[in-house]
DNA sequence: GGGCTGTGTTCGGATTCGGTAAGAAGACCC
DNA sequence: GGGTCTTCTTACCGAATCCGAACACAGCCC
């Protein structure tokens, strides 16, 4: 089950669908990772403890033990290995990220394997970065975004955003001043294989602006895209 | 079968329906891609190996060898050329992307050729790796250009440029001293399919100069084109 | 200086772009 | 099954922007 080639470390993949597991293994090993695959939840948890991988890719729906459960048990035991979830539907995302679990990222099916690799690299970069470990809230002008709690405040007042709206705002504020094209935002927030029209971005931006009111932080760059004020 | 014009590289299209193939060829070549078309699966696979295209557009349902199969064989052979699938029905999508295959994106029929081109560009951009993440601001004389923020300052004072004006200035300043002809600038800033007259460049140069004022950086090379001061 | 070519500048119509509202589709909860 | 919430699409409108023509001007050659 293990493809050893760990120039970049060993990644644990827990996925019961063989075709998906093979694909993920293919792409990860191509990228220089060692890969170890388990097919059910309990074996996955055991492998995580035994092998000490640099990161875990967990399907949510697993026989034996759900991916979420694996993550939670790891965290309880003080294991903060980066975890990326594979989720079947967007709906699961809210529960998944940050709320119940210490997940670091997630990828929704159908996903491009390239995307998974890209996110894995990003997660590892992040984990290696600031020693703080915990994601810091981002403050910009009168707006604060807390990626951990997925909460937003404007002038200290909590603002209720939907999942998509939050991801959009958080992504813009992750790099203040940086201008993102609509395509970039679609890729980052909606996912690589998203097939929404680019005007969809506009509508969601408008929604976020309305909810933030006068504290709004999103600036339009005509002919290009959007950016968070810096 | 091959339309050679590959300023942007060669794209392999495998599609048995001639009308669709022609349409795709038309749009891709208009966008500056070279296009090679094959009509059945085995020939497609052979062409992919022989021609080493920058990307493949594969119909799923193909005589001889399914598009999915072509993709899988390429991957197995260590060929990671980006692949976009053409799928007839939405239902196939779940199975298609990432699940069974190493596809990078997909387009469902009936599709807009524009969308296909847009997705192809996105995929190539992605495959080229992260765009450097943080682009460094360019300083030349009294003018600073920050590609990330799409902001310009002259003597430290922010200057408001429109999208086209910014792209023009940024392109000139990306290679200080290099003289660009009007045609080159049209191609680079306006795009390959630009049908604007070359005098349009003059007008925009004038506009940029006016906004930069005394700090202006653009020099005219009579009979040739424009350059940023070096 | 006189022509000639190439460039600067101005300006209005045409086009494109983004904000907004309204509604359809789907998921979820009760 | 009805109601609610979220997401995505579409249509419309005002405004920013672009384009190209027209004209004025500057440099080059004789």
Automatic annotation (TrEMBL), chains A, B:
Q: Where is the OmpR/PhoB-type domain?
A: 135-230
Q: Which residues carry this modification: 4-aspartylphosphate?
A: 59
Q: Name one Pfam family in it.
A: Trans_reg_C
Q: Report keywords, A-Z.
A: DNA-binding, Phosphoprotein, Transcription, Transcription regulation, Two-component regulatory system
> Which SUPFAM superfamilies is this protein grouped with?
C-terminal effector domain of the bipartite response regulators (SSF46894), CheY-like (SSF52172)
Q: Where is the Response regulatory domain?
A: 10-124
Q: Does the keyword DNA repair apply?
A: no
One cellular component term (GO) for this entry is: cytosol
Q: Which PROSITE patterns match?
A: OMPR_PHOB, RESPONSE_REGULATORY
Q: What Gene3D superfamilies does its record include? A: 3.40.50.2300, 6.10.250.690, Winged helix-like DNA-binding domain superfamily/Winged helix DNA-binding domain
Can you tell me where the transmembrane regions are?
A: none
- Cross-referenced CDD domains: trans_reg_C (cd00383)
GO function terms (MF aspect): phosphorelay response regulator activity; transcription cis-regulatory region binding
**DNA-binding feature ranges:** 135-230
One GO biological process this protein is involved in is: regulation of DNA-templated transcription
Q: PANTHER family in the record, alphabetically? A: REGULATOR OF RPOS, TWO-COMPONENT RESPONSE REGULATOR ORR33
What protein does this entry describe? Answer: DNA-binding response regulator
Organism classification = Bacteria, Bacillati, Actinomycetota, Actinomycetes, Micromonosporales
């Amino acid at each position: 089950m293990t493809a050893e080639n760990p120039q970049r470390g060993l990644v644990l993949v827990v996925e019961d669908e063989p075709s998906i597991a093979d694909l993920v293994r293919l792409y990860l090993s191509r990228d220089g990772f060692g890969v170890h695959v388990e097919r059910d939840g309990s074996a996955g948890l055991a492998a995580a403890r035994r092998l000490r991988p640099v990161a875990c890719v967990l399907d949510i729906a697993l026989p034996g033990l759900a991916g979420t459960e694996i993550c939670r048990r790891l965290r309880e035991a003080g294991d903060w290995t980066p975890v990326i979830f594979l989720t079947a539907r967007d709906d699961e995302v809210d529960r998944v990220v940050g709320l119940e679990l210490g997940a670091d990222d997630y990828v929704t099916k159908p996903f491009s394997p390239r995307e998974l690799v890209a996110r894995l690299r990003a997660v590892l970069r992040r984990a290696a970065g600031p020693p703080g470990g915990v994601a810091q809230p981002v403050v910009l002008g009168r707006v604060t975004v807390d990626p951990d709690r997925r909460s937003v405040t404007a002038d200290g007042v909590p603002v209720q955003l939907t999942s998509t709206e939050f991801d959009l705002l958080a992504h813009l504020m992750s790099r203040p001043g940086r201008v993102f094209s609509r395509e970039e935002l679609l890729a980052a927030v909606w996912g690589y294989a998203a097939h929404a029209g680019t005007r969809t971005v506009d509508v969601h931006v408008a929604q976020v602006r309305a909810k933030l009111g006068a504290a709004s932080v999103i600036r339009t760059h005509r002919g290009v895209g959007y950016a968070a004020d810096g």
